[in-house]
Amino acid sequence: MTARFFKRQQFQSHQSKRILLIEDNDVNRILLDDYLNYYGYDVRSLSEASSFFSTIEQFQPKLILLDLKLPDIDGYTLLEKMQNKPDYVNIPVIVVSALAFKADQQRALDLGACRYFVKPVNLIDLIQAIEEELALNSK
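The line above is the sequence of Response regulator; the predicted structure tokens follow.
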């Protein structure tokens, strides 16, 4: 059994979980979408935030992966707006951003993000974080 196969088997417990991915960089979005699908997640991807709330309403994600630098609305604004919507406050948000300063990380966490990853992200660490957040929120 290869190490890659073992790692994939390790993360099969939440394969029916829905993840909303907001990433404006086409290559990053496609690669992350493919990677999450490989691990059995149901992924909906957006390249901009304009349909963010309507997509949440229709897709009902169990977790959100959010880039902070988007072409139309920044991720901080989305986090702020989520805090004002009681139905969305409990959806875990993991930020995946190129913004590496501690102040950026702290601001996102203060606005409700549960975790913060700086690009380039270690994908196994990201899957582990997703699994942990989904497990916490399924109780």
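Note on the example: The helical segments are 3-10, 26-38, 52-59, 75-83, 102-110, 123-137. Residues 15-137 form a domain with the Rossmann fold fold (CATH 3.40.50.2300).
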